[in-house]
Amino acid sequence: MQPDDLQALVQLRMPFGKHKDMLLADLPGNYLAWFAREGFPAGRLGQLLALMHELDHNNLRGLLDPLRTAPRASARRV
User: Fold this and answer.
1) Per the structure, how many domains does the chain have?
2) Maximum CA pair distance of the chain?
3) What domain of life does the native source organism fall in (predicted)?
């Protein structure tokens, strides 16, 4: 893991597929689990998706909340 990887999860968007343009930090767990079973893409994207899968699998998504510039829709209070 690189020092800026957690920040990248809340800034970079998925470049392809069903969840194109969604922040990596907001990708659904079942999509991340699919990549874990089928294989992550090569390069930095694959590394970040693997990291996000670990965070999701271990129920640690909340660690990313302080890094976000805008709160998640599910975390907003009405």
Assistant:
1) 1
2) 40
3) Bacteria
Instruction: Tell me if 78 is assigned to some domain.
Output: no
**What pTM, to 2 d.p., does this model score?**
0.85
Distance CA 13, CA 25 (A): 9
pLDDT in tens, 11-32: 999 999 999 999 999 999 999 9
Instruction: Kindly report the number of other CB atoms within 10 A of residue 38's CB atom.
Output: 7
Residue 59 lies in a domain: yes
- 3 state SS of 59: coil
Give, rounded to a whole angstrom, the gap between the first and last alpha carbons of the chain. 36
* Domain enclosing residue 22, as ranges: 5-69
